[in-house]
Design goal:
The structure holds two protein chains of two kinds. By secondary structure, chain A is α+β, with helices and mostly antiparallel strands. Chain A is 28% helix and 22% strand. Classes of the chains: A alpha+beta, B alpha/beta.
Chain lengths: 352, 367
């Protein structure tokens, strides 16, 4: 979670202070683009930046196998309780790498910025990225900036791609769950989605909930250090836990049974979802991991997670079964059974 | 929000289930009127745990499901106009019109916005004086008072570029229409708690007496619904047909007099066609003539609407409780939440959507 940064009195070093907003020239590849890199991005990234400004970053080859991932971030609003599009873009790709058991090493950062975006907002986003990268121990090694006409885009879009290294012999994937495996989540569900929605235009509501955006590779490393035979790791982002479990069930050709009573859903999230007509199990998380492990390893994994700051609320929530392949089933609090479905598309607030 | 977890308590639920099992001696068919109750019943699996022969029939209380197709088509035509910002509750965006839905209009460049309150739409009008802002005012007695209040506010502040496309519906005439239907099987009603929190319980004794059915005002959490069922079967087993209020923490018998007054000031009762069901006399609200200048239907002339329902869709029978969603041949085949043929497959309160989301497994296993 990022500290609150004060940009009230922010002023850009020369020559950017003369342009309080991003203009088309900043994406033109000329002097203004170079100034933006020199005066805004590199200072904002701080120690996380590798300051070679060639067309490509040339990196040492690590031992092990490479993990490579990319993701684009278009979250609206850009700033939300507990984070912004910047730290989200770093943590998101770091976590995608971590889910294959990789140690994240290098990230690229690419921006598509709408003309007219406040320079202070861009600086705030870039600073959050630098800070998140430093916290995660990854380097921002290459980048790009494009500016689109006013009206063609909306604020700032960020793409990050990342490279990590997976130790030889480690194989983790969504297709590796087995009947009998235990399903574990590392903590409270639905927090990020509710935090973002609480600031979305037209839906604003008061909540103390903050996004859980956080890097998870440290937590994953602690879990792997227990020696557990981890079959699946996924971060339940868009589509929430429901989408993640359905993907695992389909990829592994297993059924999954989830116990509603064991799901860690904070009261604030449940209330906000109740009000908006959303299912907390379909709401995005940005700092949680779902682990599928053999039953014998479950207690060790739970202990390791709970010792890590990002996993204090870890819970075993269900099991994989040989029946109803590719389908996730929820045992309701009352003791009945229902399907836990994939969300269809965007979640829509209901009418009453 | 307090008092939610308490009403999902599994131990208390088990006690209510026991009492219901102990009470029921023969088959009964109850209708929960409200789509919110339908989803709660299916989501928690309440119907799976009821005595065999105690059937829950799912009623027509899903506002987006019953909004007439012609109104949806009109909304689509208005939303397509370049000068219009069309504001709607989120549920409506995926409801199919004759050819497409509001999502399609949005993707084609129409300015369609999801709002959570009609007052947000009014604010959008204030902020965009060069545009015409239209709010899609649909729903039962629950949403109507807030929309009425927004009309008064628009009038008070003389906001020139705001109007409403109104298609409100009323519950009591729908209950009467269901009971008048020759194929009706309903023997008791769980009345919709939120509607009654606005309108009170005064409209129901006449219905209970005329049709000889118990009507129990019921909430939405599992214990609320179980208590509603318990009281209804208790009446049926003892031969009574009365109105009871099992949702007293939210429903005063007089309802909300302020809301009722605003509603009656701004709207007037009208006949309304319910999608899939047909015309039900006096079952709707429309803007009173004093507020005609805020009526989007009059402000934007839309001609040439030719409604065309899918010939496969049997949502009308679902809404009347004549068939269960999975008994429709198109269920889960031609008709899915991704490609809905009728509104009942779309809405978060539609019975078909509930069955598809929560019951697919056993329905697949059974069939």
């Amino acid at each position: 979670m990022s500290e609150e940064l004060d940009f009230e009195g922010w002023s850009c070093p020369l020559p950017l202070r003369n342009t309080p907003t991003v203009v088309m020239g900043h994406g033109g590849g000329g002097a203004m683009s170079a100034e933006l890199v020199e005066s805004l991005f590199l200072p904002a990234y701080g120690g996380a930046a590798r300051a070679e400004l060639g067309d490509s970053a040339v990196l040492p080859r690590p031992a092990g196998r490479l993990a490579f991932s990319t993701d684009s971030y278009v979250v609206k609003p850009m700033f939300f309780p507990g984070g912004c599009i910047g730290d989200l873009a770093v943590n998101g790709t770091v976590n995608d790498l971590a889910m294959s058991g990789a140690q994240p090493l290098y990230l690229s950062t690419a921006f598509v910025i709408a003309e007219g975006t406040a320079m202070a907002d861009l600086a705030r986003v870039a600073t959050a990225m630098g800070k998140a990268a430093e916290q995660a121990g990854v380097q921002l090694v290459t980048g790009d900036t494009k500016v689109v006409d006013h009206g063609s885009g909306d604020g700032i879009y960020v793409n990050t791609a990342g490279i990590g290294v997976v130790p030889d012999g480690l194989h983790i994937g969504p297709d590796r769950a087995w009947p009998g495996d235990v399903v574990i989540v590392s903590g409270d569900l639905g927090v990020h989605g509710v935090a973002v929605m609480s600031r979305r235009e037209g839906l604003e509501f008061d909540t103390t909930i903050e996004s859980d955006t956080a890097p998870l590779h440290g937590l994953v490393a602690d879990v792997l250090a227990t020696g557990a035979e981890v079959h699946v790791l996924r971060d339940p982002t868009r589509g929430g836990l429901a989408a993640t479990l359905n993907e695992v069930a389909a990829a592994s050709q297993v059924g999954i049974v989830v116990r509603e009573r064991d799901l860690p859903i904070p009261a604030d999230v449940r209330d906000a979802c109740g009000l908006l007509g959303l299912d907390p199990l379909q709401v995005a998380n940005e700092g949680k991991v779902v682990a599928v492990v053999p039953q014998d390893d479950a207690d060790g994994v739970l202990d390791a997670m709970r010792r890590h700051p990002a996993g204090r609320g870890a819970q075993a929530i269900g099991t994989c079964v040989a029946e109803h392949q590719c389908t996730v089933v929820l045992r309701t609090g009352l003791g009945a059974t229902r399907v836990l479905d994939l969300p269809i598309g965007e979640q829509l607030p209901r009418i009453c | 929000m307090k008092y939610l977890d308490e009403f999902s308590d599994p131990d208390l639920a088990a006690k209510l289930f026991d009492q219901i099992h102990a009470t029921v001696t023969r088959p009964w068919a109850l209708m929960e009127v409200c789509g919110g109750q339908t989803h709660s019943i299916i989501r928690h699996g309440i119907d799976q745990l009821l005595p065999e022969g105690l059937e829950m029939i799912h009623g027509p209380g899903c506002p987006v499901c019953v909004t007439p197709l012609e109104t949806i088509d009109r909304a689509l035509a208005i939303a397509r106009r370049p000068e219009v910002i069309f504001c709607s509750f989120g549920d409506m965006l995926r409801v199919p019109g004759s050819s497409d839905d509001l999502f399609t209009v949005k993707s084609e460049g129409g300015d369609v916005r999801v709002v959570y309150s009609p007052l947000d739409a009014l604010q959008i009008a204030v902020d965009n004086l060069d545009a015409e802002v239209v709010f899609f005012g649909i729903g039962f007695e629950t949403t109507a008072p807030a929309n009425a209040m927004t009309v008064l506010e628009a009038r008070r502040r003389a906001i020139p570029n705001f109007s409403l496309l109104v298609s409100h519906v009323r519950v009591p005439p729908a209950i009467a229409a269901i009971m008048e239907s020759p194929s009706c099987r309903v023997q008791g009603f769980l009345a919709a708690g939120h509607v009654c929190s606005v309108m009170g319980t005064g409209e129901y004794p006449a219905l209970a007496a005329r049709y000889g059915v118990p009507i129990v005002v019921t909430g939405f959490e599992p214990l609320d619904i179980l208590e509603g069922i318990r009281r209804t079967v208790l009446q049926l087993e003892s031969g009574r047909a009365e109105v009871e209020n099992a949702y007293q923490r939210a429903v005063p018998d007089a309802g909300n007099p302020t809301a009722i007054a605003v509603l009656r000031q701004v709207f007037e009762v009208t006949d309304r066609a319910w999608r899939g069901i047909g015309m039900i006399p006096e079952s709707g609200w429309r803007l009173a003539s004093a507020y005609a200048d805020l009526d989007a239907e009059l402000r934007f002339a839309v001609t040439g609407i030719r409604t065309a329902e899918s010939p496969l869709c049997r949502s009308g029978e679902v809404l009347q409780g004549l068939i269960k969603p999975h008994e429709c041949p198109a269920f889960g085949k031609e008709c899915t939440p991704r490609h809905p043929l009728g509104a009942t497959m779309v809405s978060s309160e539609g019975a078909c959507a509930a069955y598809h989301a929560y019951r697919r497994l056993e329905l697949v296993e059974v069939s």
